[in-house]
# Entry
Amino acid sequence: MKLCHAPLSPFVRKVRIAAMELGLNDRIELVPITSSPVAMNPELAKINPLGKLPALVTDDGDLLFDSAVIVEYLDALAGGGKLIPAKGADRWRVKRTEALCDGLCDAAVLMRYEVAMRPAEMQWPEWIAGQKQKVTQSLDALEGQAWLFDDKIEIGKIAAACALGYLDVRFADLGWRKRCETLARWYEAFAKRPSVDATKPPPS
Ligand SMILES: N[C@@H](CCC(=O)N[C@@H](CS)C(=O)NCC(=O)O)C(=O)O
# Structure
C-alpha cells in the first residue's frame, strides 16, 4: 500500500500509529507529498480530489481518504475490532473521541494556515479566535476522562495523542498542559509507546 505522507500532519500520524499498532506498518510505503490549500499537488489530487493528506492507495488499487476511513480500512484488514470496538457503547465513545480530536486538528490546522500562509493584511483575528475556541473547548472535553487511563489501545486515544503532539509543535504558546493537567499526565505516559515515539513530528 502507498500512503501519501507529510511528517507534520497529525492526520497522517494517526494512520501511521494505527498501522504500527495493527502490525501492518511493513506493508505501507510512505510517499512524501507537499501540498497546500492554495497549491494542490497534482499527484495527490489524482488520489484524493480534495487534495488533502493522508490518502492511501491499497494493494487492490482502491483510493482511500480521509484518515478515519483509512484507519477503519486498516482495522478491518487486521481482522476488525482492534482499534475500533465492533459494537456497543465503547464503539460510539471511541468514534466520538476520534471525531473530537480530528476536529481539534482541523481547527488548529486552519489557524496555522491563517497565520502562516494568509497575507498579514488579509488575516481575520475573530476567525482565528473562533478556531482557537474550538481547540480549547475540545481540550476541556478530553480533560479528566477516566477511560484515557485504561490500558486499551484504541483510535480515540491515538487521535488525542496526535492532536496534542500537533499543538506542541505548532502552538506551544497555547500552553495546553497548564489548562489540562490530567490530560498532560496521560500524554506523558502514552507518548512513550513505540508507535507514538517513532512518529513524533520533527521540530518546525
Ligand atoms: N478530515 C481530513 C483532514 C485532512 C487534512 O486537513 N489534512 C491537511 C494536512 S494536516 C491537508 O492536507 N491540508 C491541505 C488542504 O487543506 O488543502 C482527514 O481526517 O484526513
About this structure: The pocket of glutathione is lined by residues 9, 11, 35-37, 51-54, 66-68, 102, 109 (CB under 6 Å).
